[in-house]
From TrEMBL:
Span of domain Dinitrogenase iron-molybdenum cofactor biosynthesis: 9-120
Any Pfam family matching the protein: Nitro_FeMo-Co
UniProt-listed InterPro entries: Di-Nase_FeMo-co_biosynth, DiNase_FeMo-co_biosyn_sf, NifX/NifY_domain
SUPFAM superfamilies named among the record's database cross-references: Nitrogenase accessory factor-like
Protein name per UniProt: Dinitrogenase iron-molybdenum cofactor biosynthesis protein
Length: 132
């Protein structure tokens, strides 16, 4: 199994999927991490990819054509992964990941090593209220 964790520094989990600069991709077998690699991630930080700030109160963002194209670019570098761990994300990003066959797990755990360990032990709560 390959797990992509969104990060800016390779050590902590980014609180928003779209704003993270990198993926730390962990390979796991038999409940243990067997390898890690850092991969670049397209996102809102890239020129021309701006976060939607104009959606109506209570409305979900990330479903217009530009956002979906942006999300496809974010997902393109992790199509070999089965899971993404993030601090939170928009529903449009979640849907793009789902369409690529990648599950989403949201957490308030900041440390990547701790989150991976807890996930592999089946003890990392999935905080779905962090989806917006």
């Amino acid at each position: 199994m390959k797990i992509a964790v969104v990060t800016d520094d390779g050590k902590t989990i980014c609180q928003h999927f779209g704003r993270a600069q990198y993926y730390l991709v962990a390979s796991a077998e038999d409940g243990s991490v067997t390898g890690k690699e850092q991969r670049p991630k397209a996102g809102h930080h890239v020129a021309g990819m701006n976060h939607e700030h104009t959606h109506a109160a209570g409305a979900c963002h990330g479903f217009n054509a530009h956002a979906q194209a942006t999300h496809a670019g974010m997902v393109s570098n992790i199509t070999d992964c089965q899971l993404v761990i993030a601090g939170g994300m928009g529903q449009g990003a979640q849907e793009s990941l789902k369409q690529a066959g990648i599950a989403v797990h949201m957490t308030d755990v900041a440390d990547i090593e701790t989150a991976l360990k807890l996930y592999l032990e089946g003890k990392l709560p999935n905080l779905t209220d962090r989806l917006h």
